[in-house]
Design a protein that fits this description.
Strand order of the largest sheet: 1-2-10-7-12-5
Number of helices: 2
CATH topology: Jelly Rolls
Shape: globular
Radius of gyration: 16 Å
CATH class: Mainly Beta
CATH superfamily: Jelly Rolls
Structural class: mainly beta
Helix content: under 10%
Length: 179
């Protein structure tokens, strides 16, 4: 695996390094020891999958409040998404800044998202599936989000949003707060 730093401390784009032969290839997409060496949280306790029927479906921008903050490892396993993270760490030099990357089944990239970030994505194709590994169990009372089109972030989404849940569409604007 290759760990490519994003502009945020502790966040990485992860690319597999395939070993190819006549059968196809083999590649590691997660290794606890390698994550620990990078200082990343390697303790994933829950895995989820989301299926999205329609192109331009937006999910996000989600996070869990402390003490249930979660690190995530996100991978698109079918179709393509534009994946976005926002730094919500109040003491960070990059607070309110965002990073976006295209994750596809073909490029097999993943993004590691540390605690203290909001996460969301926009589907680029129909019939998209996304796999999430989380370092914390879902805690409904700590589940929260920020608005996907809040001017405080000015996210440059690549397409117009066609489908969004009522909850995601009505998250509040960002305010300085402690996660």
């Amino acid at each position: 695996m290759r760990f490519i730093p994003t502009k945020f401390a502790g966040s990485y784009l992860i690319e597999p390094e395939p070993f190819s032969d006549d059968r196809g290839f083999f590649a590691r997409i997660y290794c606890r020891n390698e994550f620990k060496k990078k200082g990343l949280n390697p303790n994933f306790v829950q895995c989820n999958i989301s299926y999205n029927r329609v192109r331009n479906t937006l999910r996000g921008m989600h996070y869990q409040k402390a003490p249930y903050g979660e690190a995530k490892l996100v991978k698109c396993i079918r179709g393509a998404i534009y994946d976005v993270i926002i730094d919500l760490r109040c003491n960070s030099e990059t607070v309110t800044q965002w990073f976006g990357v295209e994750l596809t089944a073909e490029n097999r990239k993943s993004v590691y998202i540390p605690e203290g970030f909001a996460h969301g994505f926009l589907t680029i194709t129909d019939d998209t599936e996304v796999l999430y590994q989380m370092s914390e169990f879902f805690h409904a009372e700590s589940s929260s989000g920020v608005r996907w089109n809040d001017p405080a972030f000015a996210i440059d989404w690549p397409e117009k949003i066609a489908v969004i849940s009522d909850r995601d569409a009505h998250y509040p604007d960002f305010k300085e707060f402690a996660l």
